[in-house]
Each structure stands twice: as C-alpha cells, then as structure tokens.
Design a protein that fits this description.
This protein has 180 residues and is α+β, with helices and mostly antiparallel strands. It has helices at 9-37, 58-71, 85-102, 130-143; strands spanning 49-52, 76-81, 108-119, 153-164, 176-178. 42% of the residues lie in helices and 21% in strands. Residues 52-116 form the DNA/RNA-binding protein Alba-like domain.
Length: 180
C-alpha cells in the first residue's frame, strides 16, 4: 500500500513563499558576485551580503553591519524586498551616521539599485483575526488562479552597495551614486 501525501493549500502557499524567499537570496548573491567579479576577485565571502527582513532588529543590524565595514575593505551589499525597504533605509541612514560619528577614518561611497521581483504572495494583505487571516490568505491565493492563472504581484527590491572610498575599480552600470 503506497502512502499518498496530499498537500493542503496552506502547504502549497508556504512552499511558494519559501521558494520566492530563496530566489531573492540567490539573486542577491548573484548580483553581489557580479559586482565583485568586475574587480577580478574569485572568492567572495557571503558575509558581505546582508538581507534585511521586516522583522529584523534595527540596532542589531546596524551594529553587525558597522562591524563588518570596519573590519574589511571589500564592498558590502544590503538587500531588502517590499515591506522591508523602509527598515533597510532606516538602517542605512543610521549606519552612515554611526560611521561618520564613531569611525571617521572609514570612508564609504554608496550606490543604489532598484529592481523588482514577481511574486504570487501579496505582502500587504492584512486581516485582524490571525487564524482567519491565514485561512483567507491561502484561500485568496488558491482562488486567484481564475481564468488567466494566479495574480502576479511586482515587489520592489532595493540594493544598497557600500564601497570603500579608495576603491574605484567596480563597474556599476545601472546603479545610482549617492553622496554621503
């Protein structure tokens, strides 16, 4: 007798969410490797990529990134998607202020890139009752299929690249420079 496992709509929704999260991390890492690859470096430490989530602690991230920037000379990429972008901007501004005040010898250039990622999840879906929210979000997701397939949301992604001032060997076409 073979055991057939039937995935529930909630399981399918969670799987899709995890796949999109992993895709974002892989694409962010690939972008960082492309930027660093323009310098001719072969090995790229993944610690130089920080992904900001909406539930991250601002203080912890600022401290973590400040320590990274003080201890190395390689560029650092910070990535945020959708609802996490506002937190990411707060972290980057606090980071610049902290470095300016506490570590005046560290000089940075900042480059920004805004892109988008297609998603089957609506990050702005809100409802008051959590159990109803979970059920309705999954039901809405499954009912969205309609005639033309599932609704696709375009989620913004912001990348901020902090580069040491003395490093000018990067090719950053498609990135905007921001004076600090």
């Amino acid at each position: 007798m073979s055991a057939h496992v039937i995935e529930t709509n909630e399981d399918i929704s969670k799987d899709i969410f995890e796949e999109e999260k992993n895709l974002f991390e892989v694409e962010s890492n690939a972008l960082y490797q492309k930027v660093i690859g323009s310098k001719g470096l072969q090995t790229i430490p993944s610690k130089n990529l920080t992904i900001i989530n909406k539930n991250d602690s601002i203080k912890t991230k600022v401290t973590q990134i400040t320590n990274l920037l003080r201890s190395q000379t390689e560029p650092l990429l910070i990535a945020g998607k959708s609802n996490a972008i506002s937190k990411m901007l707060t972290i980057s501004e606090l980071l610049k202020s902290t470095i300016r005040n506490d570590h005046p010898t560290v000089r940075l250039k900042q480059y920004n890139k805004l892109t988008k990622q297609s998603s089957l999840h609506n990050p702005n879906y809100k409802q008051t009752n959590k159990t109803v929210k979970q059920r309705n979000n999954v039901d809405n997701f499954m009912n969205d299929a309609g005639i033309h397939g599932h609704k696709i949301y375009q989620l913004p992604i912001l990348y901020i690249l902090f580069v040491p001032k003395e490093d000018s060997s990067l090719e950053l076409s498609g990135w905007s420079h921001q004076d600090n």
